[in-house]
Amino acid sequence: MATDRHWLSIAEAARLIERRELSPLDLVDACLERVEALDGRLNAFITVLADEARVAARQAADEIANGGYSGPLHGIPVALKDIFYVAGAPMTAASRIFGEAISEEDSEVTRRLRAAGAIVLGTLNLHEIALGATGINLYTGPARNPWNTDYITGGSSSGAGAAVAAGLCFAGMGTDTGGSIRIPAALCGLAGIKPTFGRVSRRGLLPLSWSLDHAGPLTRSVEDAAIVLQAIAGHDPGDPASDRSSVPDYGATLGDGVRGLRIGVPDRYFGDGADAEVEAAFREALRRLEGLGAELSEFSPPHADEMPGAIAAIMLPEAFTFHRSAMEERPGEIGEDVRYRLELGAAYPAAEYIQALRFREMLVEAWREDVFGGIDLVATATTMVAARPIDGSDLSTTFSLIRNTNPFNLLGTPAISVPCGFTGAGLPIGLQLAGRWFDEATVLRAAHAYENATDWHSRRPPL
User: What is the pLDDT of residues 397-406, one digit of tens each?
Assistant: First the structure.
């Protein structure tokens, strides 16, 4: 096992740690060796906290030896997108505009991970200030896809996708404002869940769009995603958008399967213009779900054509508002693609922003009644395309990546991406399942059932 510890799932590693058959320090060392060997090619990490991680691993080992095992994240190495505050590390947002000031406090997500016993390895690369879907960053350089390092990981949680897929860490914490967890999960062959808006605290997280930002994990299995989400979910009075509803035990229903679940398949918009290989993999995934006992039906998604304009009219003005001083004082220090999007945000009339917020309220009610009133889950391909070459990615690539994901940011519903196939070139394809508000349990349950019936998630990149 010494040569493949980095490929264990969190659940597998946790069982070994609890039985004292695996040391947290051995696990941390395995990941750090992997980082040293591969990150020069992948560019997944911005800051590596090697010494701090080893100290934390020794402490975890002592706690466990003294009967203080605290659960399945105890001693597990994780890393966070570099817009979460991590005490002792700079928070750069992969941008020149934030400098190298060391964070003095943890974000609430970081704090909860540490409280669960997780060991923070460092911070991860991203599309600058999280405003982009490709992961191409003109300042830090792009994170590279482990399945083909000439290709994008997707973004904006690009480093998380690369690091977890390559076995550099066991979970990567990402954020998702228009698809930024699910897109790299799809392109890198991972499970990535965006929980319901308000389910996970954003305190201590650099905002992009306070109306649309979500935080969640990327992992190598759905079970692992459930373990991490269990640790970070729940009310936080320090986040005004944090919801007070109780958090269920996600593990309790994870193995319940999909028999009898009603899964809706949009009859337009979401599949329009998808690559043939993506569409074929998605249709085969639907057949597999149906074979497992799910009840499939088509539905017409309400107001689908209006959703892209609405999300842009909310996200871009909010992003510009937060970054206004940098745009006014140091615009040349912001990457050209990100600066262009912020300039678009500055140009939106206030009336259009308010209209978009009102449209969102109407959209939520329409989907609550007309869609989720009759089905349990929505299934789509996560992205319209698989990964594209870094040198050939442009605005059309971005639109193909976000088209299927950002509606669920506007709605605020939970959505997960899981691997559902590969292209002929060996690049992963993702299946997206979205559920009712605060029903992450059903989303995870269905994704886990699909994952158990296939082997896509168990394949490893040829590094």
Answer: 999 999 999 9
Amino acid at 78: V
* CATH code of the region 5-458: 3.90.1300.10
Q: Which residue has the tokens 């970081």?
A: 110
* pLDDT tens sequence across 207-227: 999 999 999 999 999 999 999
β-strand pairing of 77-81 with 45-48: unpaired
Report if pTM > 0.85: yes
DSSP 80: E
For range 391-415, the mean pLDDT: 93
Sort residue 412 into left (φ over 0), alpha (ψ -120 to 50) or beta. Answer: left
pLDDT at 370: 97
Question: For residues 217 and 160, what is the distance between their CA atoms, to the nearest angstrom?
Answer: 9
Q: What is the mean pLDDT of the chain?
A: 97
Q: Which residues contact 194 (CB under 8 A, 6 or more apart)?
A: 176, 179, 181, 182, 214, 216, 408, 409, 414, 415, 416
- DSSP strands (E only) in 100-231: 119-124, 144-145, 148-152, 171-176, 191-194, 214-219
Q: At 381, which helix (H) or strand (E)?
A: strand 377-381
Q: Could you state, in order of their start, the residue ranges of all structural domains in the chain?
A: 5-458
* DSSP-derived 3-state class of residue 218: strand
| Cβ atoms < 10 Å from Cβ of 71 | 15
Residues designated as active site: 81, 156, 180
The two three-digit tokens of residue 433, written as one number: 């399942």
Sequence length of the chain is 463
Bond into 156 cis (ω within 30)? yes
Given a contact cutoff of 8 angstroms between Cβ atoms, the answer to whether 95 and 47 are in contact is no
Taking Cα atoms as reference points, which of 134, 194, 191 lies closest to residue 456?
A: 191
> pLDDT by residue (tens digit) across 31-62?
999 999 999 999 999 999 999 999 999 999 99
Distance CA 45, CA 52 (A): 15
